[in-house]
Design a protein that fits this description.
Pfam families: GIPC1_GH1, GIPC1_GH2, PDZ. The chain is α+β, with helices and mostly antiparallel strands. The chain has 6 helices and 11 strands.
């Protein structure tokens, strides 16, 4: 399995299954399909793609910026799993490691990626509304099923609107500065800063919990702003 989407069988990167699952959600698994090798000429520093991963070794393309280098290579598609770069197998790498590898490639040179498309399948229509609905069976469905790599899954309350907005903002900043999207990482950063009194304390907390990322100072400052905006609404 490359990744899963919630409530749609289509390759929709806005519906990816992350660490949380609503009580009424349906899961659709996307498996490996056609393998392809593409050559890309890196004429600019930015390739124009956003990378994420499924948490177990499959990094894939989540978004392609319109008019970018990658956008000009029509055989590269959203949802493609990146298997290797210049012959180096990257299966097992996290998304930020793949993004760093691509960023470090030399400008004005050709590089090769081996990609794996998600297998194409027939469309599935909306599920039947006959009989009792999930909401009728379980109540208001305001809880969220939290999936964990270690330990059992648990049902948690939905985050407040202010917290959810801040986490989404941090996730967007991760894409802007790092070329990745990771809602769990964004949540960890929010939790690290919610009780800190100033940007310096926040920076220290990030170094203690996420020091391997080596976030740039301007990114940390912008994230602190997102956390601060949310705290004012609590």
């Amino acid at each position: 399995i490359l990744y899963c989407t919630l409530n749609t069988p289509k390759v929709d990167m806005q519906r990816l299954l992350g660490g949380q699952l609503g009580l009424e959600d349906f899961i659709f698994a996307h498996v490996k399909g056609l393998k392809k090798e593409v050559n890309v000429y890196k004429s600019e520093d930015s390739l124009g793609l956003t990378i994420t991963d499924n948490g177990v070794g499959c990094a894939f393309i989540k978004r392609i910026k319109s008019g970018s280098i990658i956008d000009s290579v029509k055989t590269i598609c959203v949802g493609d799993h990146i298997e290797s770069i210049n012959g180096e197998n990257i299966v097992g790498w996290r998304h930020y490691e793949v993004a760093k590898k691509l960023k470090e490639l030399k400008k004005e040179e050709l590089f090769t990626m081996t990609l794996v498309e998600p297998k194409k399948a027939f469309d599935i229509g909306p599920r039947s509304k006959s009989g009792k609905t999930s909401a009728e069976n379980i109540g208001t469905a305001r809880g969220t099923l939290r999936l964990r790599s270690k330990g059992p899954a648990t049902v948690e309350e939905m985050p407040s609107e202010a917290k959810a907005k801040a986490i989404e903002k941090i996730d967007s900043l991760l894409e802007l500065y790092m070329g990745i999207r990771d809602i769990d990482l964004a949540t960890t950063m929010f939790e690290a800063g919610k009780d800190k009194g100033n940007p310096d304390e926040f920076a220290v907390a990030l170094d203690e919990t996420l020091g391997d990322f080596a976030f740039p100072d301007e990114f940390v400052f912008d994230v602190w702003g997102a956390v601060g905006d949310a705290r004012q609404e609590f």
